Amino acid sequence: MNVVSYDGSAAGFWALLGLALEEGSCPDAVERTDRRSLFGWRAVPPGRSALLASRARVRLELADHRAPEELEMARRRGRPVDLACLRLALALDRDGPDAFDRHADPDRRAVRAAADAVRREFHRLEGLLRFKPVSGRAWLAACEPDNELVDLLAARLAPRFGSDPAGPVPFGVLDLGRNALAGRGPDGEAFTESCRDAEAAVARLGPRPAGIAAAPPSAIRAPASLRAPGPFPEPGNGNARTPPEAPDLDEDLWRVYFEAATNPARANPDLQRRFVPERYRRHLTEFRVAEARADGNRNGRAPEPADGSASDRSGTTTA
Amino acid sequence: METAEKLALLAASARYDASCASSGSARRGALGAANAGGVCHAWTEDGRCVSLLKVLLSNRCRYDCAYCANRASAEVPRASFETDELVRIVVSFYRRNYIEGLFLSSGVFAEPDTVMERMNEVARRLRRDEGFGGYIHLKAIPGAGERTLAEAGFLADRLSANIELPTARALASLAPDKDGRAIVGMMRSIDGRIREDADGRRGAARRPRAWAPAGQSTQLVVGASPDSDREIVALAGALYREVRLRRVYYSAYLPVSTDPRLPGSPPPLLREHRLYQADWLVRRYGFSTGEILEDDAENLDPDLDPKSAWALRHLDRFPVELAKAPWEELLRVPGIGATGARRILESRRAGGLSLEALPSLGIVMKRARWFVTVRGRAPAGAGTDLALPRLRALISDRPAPRGDDAPGSAPAVDTRSLEAPHPSAVHPGSAEGVPPVPAADPLQLELGLGKGAA
Predict the structure, then answer these.
(1) Would you say the C-alpha torsion B120, B125, B126, B132 has a positive or negative sign?
(2) Which residues, numbered 250 to 279 in chain B, qualify as contacts with chain A under a Cβ-Cβ cut-off of 8 Å?
(3) Is B430 on the interface with A (CB under 8 A)?
């Protein structure tokens, strides 16, 4: 049985495709020997890997301009579909766009399903990442995606941080499951690298400041029942740990907004659950409302309504 | 009043505005960028996407619209944001990735031009002082001056003027301070400026920033007045045609007071859902408003999505041969959406289209199976003639009755939609097959819509 193994990295994947296209044959099986690492590869002699990868991209681009992006997305799938990618690449090389448009073909279906799943999660996390100030200038968001996404997310969200007088604002997106960090360092350079935990991520993003910048408490006061800071998410598979945090008044303010924006007369928690599955909630500021309330109750306080018009069920807006 | 209390109050006051889209603009600033596709950042317990920080600048209002929580006569706490206060919240929420931008509306607490200028001030601070490149949606206040509106369009990605009620009659009864003609006039003015902006940029070597690049939208409250779906759909169609709205939002009315002019119970949420489905057919699938509600039907069928209801009225157009049908015809088949239609065309070109492949193309076979063939073959069990009621039951998507749409509160099922196919039906997508756009309704003319009304 012809089994090919590689390290699961992007470079390894594309070199693997290059090798298959060069030889015109597909192995019986593909194995990823190191799923955790995003870097390095062992399947092809290092001296040829870059060339093979580059050739594969060009050849597939010529076969069908949609193919490289689709295969790259499928590659990022947490449950690998490498063999289907290899077979589709060979079919594209042979049949051109027809291979891409044969939607009922099992390999095409597998690749499409994987690519679509990655795109869906990317689009979802694009909105559901929550950044926290972790140093005087740096921001960090933690997540545990099913798929390999941190570099894409960091690239998409970079404009959100802009620059301050000291230069580009450092930020990072940390994949706790894969121990990977992507973002922009204090030197302004974009990076993607392995990172053992959140403390290491904070260190990578810049020196620890004297204090966390926050609005003066006189300017922002959350209702007392919502003031208890929630715990930072439990670590994922990567045994990550996050440093203790100072009270974050803007997080409280966001919880106030989230509650007030809910229309109780249209409650539909099933729909909410469909859009925000449980596995994402541990990193979402707004889902710590319940915990904060529970804290308030334990302390003998009745939770205050965040909504100033709790009894109001009007049907429209002004203007 | 502290910021958190204001935020709670002014966000709760704004939550009935259904619009929260952040799509249609691709601006970039020193701080952030608008994403043309739009992004949802959270989902509240009512299942709605939170994309923008949606707040009122103030809930103080001179108007006394019967259906509105912030009406002048309502005894509710009143508050207003300071400009700096709101700008700081937006920037902080944006950096944290809680939001894609700001949706700013307001009660009419002063002269319209003053209110709009105050809203512009917030947007101006964001754009100019903070370099904010995220999305901004501003409410256009009817009655505001041209200069104020002109600046708003340069600052905002989207503008909107809410018409709220579908007929002049309903506006006169429930919102006597509002002038339907003034609202439509504001929409025309916005549309005119968007056209001018587009014309001005055509051929220019260096293209200046577009004016309101994400266009304009509006909202209609459904069920506060006795207006029918026909009137609502016709008005939406007229607005899409005449002032080129990007979106019409529909918001089911929720009881707010014991005012005898208002209904005692809310309409079923299903009615709102059907209106959105009908709206989608008009905006994306090439249906005319006249095709959505044909003959004398006044309301959409609660048991069937509007496309399925249309298909049952036009059975002579089916089955559609998927191996030959053009794009426009594919889109009219129940169970086939834009993605499915595209994949059918691609599979056809690649020689891989078969009956067996249809489910893998993303086609909803529960509905499509009764309306299609592939090279003359019908899906298993679908070739037999079924009585219309049986077919109707098979493709119905009506969920099990719930409290909010129990019998009695739902609009009556219009059995006319089950009658024989429309005699004028020819071919989907062809000029003859599409019923003519209905003449402007007298009520639309009262709102300043329709031929000669402008």
Answers:
(1) positive
(2) 251-256, 266, 269
(3) no
Of A223, A308, A316, the CB nearest to B16: A316
Are B106 and B237 in the same domain? yes
ipTM greater than cut 0.90: no
Alpha carbon of residue B292 to chain centroid: 15
Q: Which domain-ending residue is among B270, B292, B314?
A: B292
Domain-embedded: residue B429: no
Q: Indicate whether B57 and B162 sit together in one domain.
A: yes
Distance between first and last Cα of chain B: 45
Secondary structure class of B222 (helix, strand, coil): strand
Helix axes A10-23, A46-63, angle to 10 degrees: 70
Interface contact B372, partner A, CB < 8 A: no
Is the same domain home to B277 and B254?
yes
Residuewise pLDDT in 10s, chain A (319 residues)? 778 888 888 998 999 999 999 999 998 888 887 544 444 444 566 678 899 999 999 999 999 999 999 999 999 999 999 999 999 999 999 999 999 999 999 999 999 999 999 999 999 999 999 999 997 789 999 999 999 999 999 999 999 998 888 889 999 999 999 999 999 999 899 999 999 999 999 999 986 444 444 333 333 333 333 333 333 333 333 333 444 455 688 999 999 999 999 988 888 888 888 888 888 998 999 887 555 555 555 454 433 333 333 333 333 334 4
Question: Are B32 and B109 in the same domain?
Answer: yes
CA distance, residue B387 to nearest chain A CA (Å): 33
Q: Return the CATH number at B131.
A: 3.20.20.70
What's the gap in Å between the CA of B97 and the closest CA on chain A?
6
Residue B353 domain boundaries: 306-403
In chain A, which residues have their Cβ closer than 8 Å to the Cβ of B251? Answer: 315-316
Would you list the DSSP string of B78-144? --B--HHHHHHHHHHHHHTTS-SEEEEE----S-HHHHHHHHHHHHHIIIIIS-B-SEEEEE--TT-
DSSP label of A254? H
Query: Domain check: are B160 and B113 in the same one?
Result: yes
Taking the Cβ of residue B308 and every Cβ of chain A, the question of whether any pair is shorter than 8 Å is answered with no
Flag whether B441 is in a domain.
Answer: no
C-alpha torsion B372→B375→B380→B384, nearest 10: 70
**Domain end call among B234, B265, B292:** B292
Q: Write out chain B residues lying below 8 Å of A260, CB-based.
A: 7-9, 11-12, 15
> Do residue B343 and residue A103 have CB atoms under 8 angstroms apart?
yes
Q: How many domains does chain B have?
A: 2
